[in-house]
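Annotated sample (chain length 174).
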Amino acid sequence: MSEQTHKRVEQRGLYFDELQLGATYVHKPGRTLTEADNVAFTTMTMNNQGLHLDAAWASTQPFGKPLVNSLLTLSTMIGQSVGQLTEGTIVGQLGINDVRFPHPMFHGDTLYTETEITALRESKSRPGQGLASMTHTGRNQHGDIVATATRTCLMWTQQAHLDSLEPKGESSNG
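Output written by the structure step:
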């Protein structure tokens, strides 16, 4: 019998040098945001806004029912992109800009996210790393845009990251 070798594949995002300018990455599955998610997130972040926590009061407001906390929507939208784009390949998040919430999310709505790579440039001060700008767009199950945000990340190139993981030579005291 011949000896079989099994390839080991680790889930990760894309390296800076694998990202494609102008490409849109569609993240699956969607995430249904429940009342429990909203109450937990809102209270954990010490936000006592009645629009998120008080169904009776929210029913008297313009939307007629509680809204999902917009920061939960933002966090989930960015989180949906991690496995496909930045898991294990990001050095750090540098900023989130141009955040918009053009349509509300309600309990039971499902968030679907896609991300377009809008700018790529190699770092001038950190060899083997690059800056990637991306625009996240979140839609509900009806296709309404519920959130957009532009994010800039410092990302590893594949070779530089692999080199950084190599064991460093040990000094011998002979």
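Annotation: The chain has a mean pLDDT of 93.
Annotation: Residues 101 and 147 are 4 Å apart (CA to CA).
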